[in-house]
Please model this.
Amino acid sequence: DAGVTQSPTHLIKTRGQQVTLRCSPKSGHDTVSWYQQALGQGPQFIFQYYEEEERQRGNFPDRFSGHQFPNYSSELNVNALLLGDSALYLCASSLASTVVYEQYFGPGTRLTVT
Amino acid sequence: SQKIEQNSEALNIQEGKTATLTCNYTNYSPAYLQWYRQDPGRGPVFLLLIRENEKEKRKERLKVTFDTTLKQSLFHITASQPADSATYLCALVDSGTYKYIFGTGTRLKVLA
Model:
């Protein structure tokens, strides 16, 4: 039973460029959440996708967008990259039908913006 | 303003002792609170969940308490081992939005 997988593992981009990060949820899970974790900080909630729609959003600008596919996998897109976007981007999956749900995190994508 | 705070200083304890980590929150109404473990360069791993109407939860050497009057959760690791060394994150799920809000984490080091 595969856990949450993310790709790529590491990424280096230049300021102003665009980036796409990918996530495959744990088998059987239908909800994907994305988080940004700066060094020494806790994860910050970006948004959550369920049934291919954005269900909730944190305090992130519109430069951050996402998508969920019919197989429940998800993408996070960041446009016009800033130096401050350098962080570990975490994907977490869960099952929406459970009243209280656990989140299973992937290993993350380390994004460096130069 | 809304805040969730963990002791940002690292906690060093001797092997075999009980480690106690604190999570305090302000201006939130948690539906429940979770604790995660995170190793360097890895994603957080879920450990325990406690609901707003529960006082205590246990799992093996782990114990979590939740005091909604004090707005505080305590996380205990008994008989600590060097392998318990990691950063521990608390996260509350707000009852209004059901969004996850994480603390900054406390780094625990268990000395052999």
Observations:
- Chain A is about 0% helix and 50% strand.
- Chain A touches chain B through 23 residues (CB under 8 Å).
- Chain A has a mean pLDDT of 93.
